[in-house]
Write a structure and sequence with these properties.
The protein has three domains: 236 residues, Glutamine Phosphoribosylpyrophosphate, subunit 1, domain 1 (4-Layer Sandwich); 204 residues, Rossmann fold; 137 residues, Rossmann fold (3-Layer(aba) Sandwich). The strands form five sheets. Strands 3-2-4-1-10-9-11-15 form an eight-stranded antiparallel β-sheet, with helices on one face. It is globular. It is of the alpha/beta class and 607 residues long. 35% of the residues lie in helices and 23% in strands. The structure holds 6-O-phosphono-alpha-D-glucopyranose (G6P). The site of 6-O-phosphono-alpha-D-glucopyranose has 16 residues, from helix 9.
């Protein structure tokens, strides 16, 4: 889950590498390092902690001369976050340096073999075997050495490599971890993600698995595992550089919460045409849909909860049975999936290892795959039979917000599209389209009508634990609300289907125990109201999420979060907004590192 970056050109490399690493810091931030080549010598500088420490140690890069180098920001998997374990790793002869994102599964066997051959190891990482293998196989030709070394590796890797024998060249290799080349004028780059490149170039090449690149300041050469040169398309990145900057907000998370009206609009608006939901990018015909016996949605984390809320809507409108499965479970469950299954894969990054593995497993069993993805050209997007992009723009905060709401928005659109194709919408269609089109405005209202949240955060931030309850789509949102809370504020937060309270959780309710009740679905409001009364009579403090004029809930609960009136079929995407803001302000009250919560990473590219 680390981030890697590489540069070769005429300018000093270190400041550019540091700048790129700052943009990639969301991928991992427990230690970092750079290796820069100057006059056929490699200088390596490493630190524990954040990129800021690396900037300090290198005087913002000025203390490390050279115009060609590689960098890394780490999220530890093998070995503690120490300087020894930080990348880049050097070969024993000092001629090669390597940065790596991913996991080498067979590193123990390789390590033993290399130790027997006389190589000594400085770190506990899986990565270090790679640099020794390259040294072992290098006979004057880096292409050959890289192909032979990577042939020995099992697992996932995006690699950046430099070699003192080849000054001015940087090498990149991709296998099951993201890697993008940046094509500049008189300078070239690689990085784990475009955010590290857009300050320098908007022309990028997406490497695919099994591809290698050799970059000099003037040339970009790509070759395959046989060493054969490949021609690749250069793609122009269209989004604004500012989209990846904080733009005056204290945190990326707050900025991204505020961007949701625009992001949901960008996701929905182009897909409504002539009174219908219209997906230019989908090739699923009416006949294909008729053959679908069930839809399986798979994802991890918040994307999984987006799937949970999508299930209700697809089943309600299209009347196709939907199962929602955690990707980490699905991949090992010998799933009952065949060519009559439509697999919907949801992923903001498109690089989540479990999600990719579950997808491959289901594809192998014959499922048709439809991906809902934010990052263009990512692995999930490339593997899917059909891909629908969420158009949320770059999401930097580790805890997802606009990534989540745009996923839910696409699920709404798909529910409408499938229902229409199967002739199940009829007279509801015009009304539901209007509701869909109103969602960006409703989200803005939900942001505007909750100015009380910073005060509420002062009341709830010191709680030992928080329980979230709800039913139906309100339950799906309670799940995501609790996840947001624990991710960034480190409070214990659990979500329960409100009807399940009596089957256990109610035993934990005592005086002043906060319960956050999501009550936005009028058809089952009375039921959740009963649960509120039950927990209140046992001493709970209830913070209810509901409408402003909902007298029954207003008279039963203690504190409130509000949403505007919105048709319950599509209300979940609005309901999550006050819960995101609550998590944000509670975390702020607790002095947490909101954009980079401890132990987490944005893109979980390991199992
Ligand atoms: C990590 C992130 C979550 C995200 C999950 C799935 O845990 O911190 O915010 O929901 O991965 O990520 P994906 O990129 O597949 O949506």
């Amino acid at each position: 889950m680390c981030g890697i970056v590489g540069f070769t050109g005429k300018q000093s490399a270190a400041p550019i590498l540091l700048d790129g690493l700052k943009k990639l810091e969301y991928r991992g931030y427990d230690s970092a390092g750079i290796a820069v080549m100057d006059q056929a010598q490699i200088e390596v500088v490493k630190v524990t902690g954040r990129i800021a420490n690396l900037c300090e140690k290198t005087k913002d890069g000025e203390a490390v001369p050279g115009t060609c180098g590689i960098g890394h920001t780490r999220w530890a998997t093998h070995g503690a976050p120490t300087e020894e374990n930080a990348h880049p790793h050097l070969s024993n002869d000092g001629r090669f340096a390597v940065v790596h994102n991913g996991i080498i599964e067979n590193y123990i066997a390789l390590r033993e073999e290399l130790i027997k051959d006389g190589y000594h190891f400085e770190s506990e990482t899986d990565t270090e075997v790679i640099v020794h293998l390259i040294e072992m196989y290098y006979e004057g030709d880096m292409r050959e050495a890289l192909i032979r070394a990577t042939n020995r590796l099992r697992g996932s890797y995006a690699l950046g490599v430099i070699c003192t024998e080849e000054p001015g060249k940087i090498y990149a290799v991709r296998e099951a971890s993201p890697l993008i080349l940046g094509v500049g004028v008189g300078e070239n780059f690689f990085a784990s993600d475009v955010t590290a490149l857009v300050n320098y170039t908007r022309n990028v090449i997406y490497l695919e698995d099994g591809e290698f690149a050799e970059l000099t300041e003037e040339s970009v050469r790509i070759f395959d595992v046989l060493g054969k040169t490949i021609d690749k398309k250069v793609t122009r990145i269209l989004w604004d550089v500012q989209a990846a900057e904080k733009g005056g907000y204290e945190h990326f998370m707050l900025k991204e919460i505020m961007e949701q009206p625009g992001a949901v609009k960008a996701t929905i608006a182009p897909r409504i045409r002539d009174g219908k939901v219209f997906f230019e990018e989908l090739n699923i015909t009416q006949d294909d849909l008729k053959k679908v016996r069930k839809i399986v949605i798979t994802a991890c984390g918040s994307a999984y909860y987006a799937g949970c809320s999508g299930k209700y809507v697809i089943e309600k409108l299209a009347r196709i049975p939907v199962e929602v499965e955690l990707a980490s479970e699905l991949r090992y469950s010998d799933p009952l999936i065949d060519e009559h299954t439509l697999l919907i894969v949801i992923s903001q990054s498109g690089e989540t290892a479990d999600t990719i593995a579950a997808m491959k497993e289901c594809k192998a069993r014959g499922a048709r795959t439809l991906a809902i993805v934010n990052v263009v050209g990512s692995t999930v997007a490339t593997l899917a039979d059909d891909t629908v992009y969420t158009w949320a723009g770059p999401e930097i905060a580790v805890a997802t917000t606009k990534g989540f709401t745009t996923q839910v928005a696409v699920l709404y659109l798909l529910a409408m599209h499938f229902a229409d194709k199967l002739g199940r919408l009829q007279e509801k269609e015009a009304h539901l389209l209007k509701v869909l089109e109103s969602l960006p405005r409703k989200i803005q209202q939900a942001i505007d009508m909750n100015a009380q949240i910073p005060e509420l955060a002062k009341k709830y931030h010191s709680s030992k634990s928080l329980f979230f309850i709800g039913r139906n789509t309100d339950y799906a949102i309670a799940l995501e609300g609790a996840l947001k809370m624990k991710e960034i504020s480190y409070l214990h937060a659990e979500s329960y289907a409100a009807g399940e309270l009596k089957h256990g959780t109610i035993a934990l309710i005592e005086d002043h125990q906060p319960v956050i009740a999501v009550c936005c679905n009028p058809s089952i409001m009375e039921k959740t109201l009963s649960n509120i009364v039950e927990v209140k009579s046992r001493g709970a403090e209830v913070l209810a999420l509901t409408f402003r004029n909902n007298q029954k809930i207003l008279s039963a609960a203690d504190d409130f979060l509000f949403i505007p009136e919105v048709d319950p079929v599509f209300s979940a995407v609005v309901e999550i907004i006050p819960l995101q803001l609550l998590a944000y302000y509670v975390a702020k009250e607790n002095g947490c590192d909101i954009d980079k919560p401890k132990n987490l990473a944005k893109s979980v590219t390991v199992e």
